């Protein structure tokens, strides 16, 4: 209690704190190791610049103490001394003594030492381990606590593996950690395995088969925060490509949501299901996602509809079934459901124009329900593109033109384009409406983009209606691929920072923390050089096979 009192009031009473130094120094030589450790910790915690001359000899002596607890405390004392005076640590024997403790017999001392060296040597990129250090640490890794194992695995990422044989030795040793109940340790091992096999897709697929079981087990944890962390990392793995998707495809039902799960868990499972869908499982997954549309959480319903649309875009054979399913959703009297269904339907008919006939019947009812700008814009686009196929298209458009001035800019722009396109399809019915709309857009609207577009259309029509038709109704190519939410380069950068907050935020660390000078900058472990004459393999996209993969365990072979 006296030590605690001194530490708390040392900063505000620095002159008085100096009076306690003799007592603390005396206690640092006490016969009881607990007293020695507590006294040293308190002495280092005073954090006064004028105490460096007393701290350095006390810490140096404690680093060589016979008791592990005192050495462990002294290691942290070096870090505290470093922040008071970096030159004292760098110019004395403290740093060499600290490096020697990496091979200490006490596991707690080694754990503290690795973390202390990473912090003290942050400006140089942290502590760089040698082959001898790595071999010693890996042979003893089972004796360390969860925190110590994570420290060793972070250090291992900096090590360059010499050859394939050493790679398999490391992987075989770390394989024992896959039985750990600690999510942090398991994900650290996962990162190392993925890094080591990054140039060998076939081997990486086998490694994933070995990791899949523990990943699915941890995903079912009673702790929702832990389950979410595992799900985020599974999503990162599955996003890598077809080979990684194949590993988890047979277990897609594991990612069906439960009614009592929090929304963030459901959202991540829906994203994973979207990636896992293939020819065989698409129907089951779409049926499951359709159930989520009636979820009490509007965001879950929206995400489920977007997922259904994404599956249709990537799996051509499901388009007819999914368009039919979305048409049914359009008929629900729920605003946000109709909005999302309309947006997804617009994307689908851009890729599968032949499927429009199925959805045309629901457009009229949907226009009366949808109130959100995105949904209105999507429905207006459909009216403009398929005005010939929708019998009542002009009459559906007329009430929207009457409320033109009440709409947001995006809807106004889409309404202008849709009306002009419809005019070229059905001039007698739309001519009067178009004149009214152009007058409002040019004379009454204050939105510059809307006014400019209306003037462009008006002048084109004034000069030559045929030329206007050629410009505005130019034939469009069928969309083959839609832009992904995250581009490939960004996804690769995030994956290199696997097992960090970057995976959770889906952003590189540089976007949300100051990386420079940090001792814990995410790194990628360099894979071993390939055997002579062997070229790096590139994962080629493959057709999603209906056959389930046979689990192979190369690590234990």
From TrEMBL:
Pfam families, sorted: Adaptin_N (PF01602)
Keywords: Membrane, Protein transport, Transport
Swiss-Prot/TrEMBL GO biological process terms: intracellular protein transport; vesicle-mediated transport
Clathrin/coatomer adaptor adaptin-like N-terminal domain mapped to chain residues: 1-463
Domain of life, source organism: Eukaryota
Any Gene Ontology CC annotation: endomembrane system
Membrane spanning residue stretches: none
Annotated compartments: Endomembrane system
Positions of region (Disordered): 526-557
Biased composition (Polar residues): 546-557
Gene Ontology MF annotations: clathrin binding
SUPFAM superfamilies xref list: ARM repeat (SSF48371)
Major localization listed first in the record, in broad terms: membrane
Family designation: Belongs to the adaptor complexes large subunit family.
Protein name: AP complex subunit beta
Species per Swiss-Prot/TrEMBL record: Effrenium voratum
Upper lineage: Eukaryota, Sar, Alveolata, Dinophyceae, Suessiales
């Amino acid at each position: 209690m006296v030590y605690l009192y001194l530490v708390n009031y040392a900063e505000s009473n620095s002159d008085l704190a100096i009076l306690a130094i003799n007592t603390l120094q005396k206690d640092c030589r006490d016969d009881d190791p607990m007293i020695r450790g507590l006294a040293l910790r308190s002495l280092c915690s005073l954090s006064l610049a004028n105490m460096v001359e007393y701290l350095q000899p006390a810490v140096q002596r404690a680093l060589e103490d016979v008791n592990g607890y005192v050495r462990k405390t002294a290691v942290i004392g070096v870090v505290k001394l470093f922040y008071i005076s970096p030159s004292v640590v760098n110019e004395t024997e403290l740093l060499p003594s600290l490096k020697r403790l990496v091979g200490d017999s006490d596991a707690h001392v080694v754990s503290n030492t690795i973390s202390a060296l990473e912090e003290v040597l942050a400006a140089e990129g942290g502590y760089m381990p040698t082959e001898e250090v790595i071999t010693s640490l890996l042979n003893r890794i089972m004796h360390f606590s969860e925190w110590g194992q994570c420290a060793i695995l972070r250090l291992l990422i900096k090590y360059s593996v010499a050859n394939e044989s050493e790679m398999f030795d490391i992987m075989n040793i770390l394989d024992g950690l896959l039985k750990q109940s600690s999510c942090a340790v398991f994900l650290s091992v996962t990162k190392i395995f993925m890094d080591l096999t990054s140039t060998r897709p076939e081997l990486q697929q086998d490694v994933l088969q070995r990791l899949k079981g523990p990943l699915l087990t941890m995903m079912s944890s009673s702790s929702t925060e832990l389950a979410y962390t595992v799900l985020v990392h599974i999503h990162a793995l599955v996003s890598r490509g077809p080979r990684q998707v194949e590993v988890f495809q047979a277990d897609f039902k594991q990612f069906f949501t439960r009614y009592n799960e929090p929304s963030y868990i459901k959202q991540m499972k829906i994203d994973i299901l979207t990636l896992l869908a293939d020819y065989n499982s698409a129907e089951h997954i779409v049926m499951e996602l359709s159930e989520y549309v009636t979820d009490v959480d509007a965001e879950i319903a929206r995400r489920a509809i977007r997922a259904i649309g994404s599956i249709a875009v990537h799996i051509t054979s499901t388009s007819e079934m999914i368009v039919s399913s979305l048409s049914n959703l359009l008929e629900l009297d729920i605003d946000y459901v109709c909005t999302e269904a309309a947006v997804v339907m617009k994307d689908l008919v851009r890729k599968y124009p032949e499927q429009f006939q199925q959805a045309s019947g629901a457009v009229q009812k949907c226009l009366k329900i949808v109130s959100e700008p995105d949904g209105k814009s999507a429905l207006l686009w459909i009216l403009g593109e398929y005005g010939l196929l929708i019998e009542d298209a002009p009459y559906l458009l007329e009430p929207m033109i009457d409320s033109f001035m009440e709409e947001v800019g995006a809807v106004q722009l889409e309404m202008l384009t849709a009306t002009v396109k419809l005019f070229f399809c059905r001039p007698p019915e739309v001519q009067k409406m178009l004149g009214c709309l152009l007058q409002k857009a040019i004379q009454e609207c204050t939105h510059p983009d809307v006014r400019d577009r209306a003037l462009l259309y008006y002048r084109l029509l004034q000069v030559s209606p045929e030329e206007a038709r050629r410009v505005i109704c130019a034939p469009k190519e069928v969309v083959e691929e839609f832009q992904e939410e995250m581009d490939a380069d960004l996804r690769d950068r995030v994956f290199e920072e696997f097992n960090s907050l970057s995976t959770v935020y889906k952003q590189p660390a540089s976007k949300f923390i100051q990386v420079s000078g940090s001792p814990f900058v995410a790194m990628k472990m360099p894979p071993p050089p390939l055997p002579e004459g062997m070229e790096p393999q590139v994962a080629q996209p493959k057709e999603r096979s209906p056959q389930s993969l046979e689990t192979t365990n190369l690590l234990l072979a």
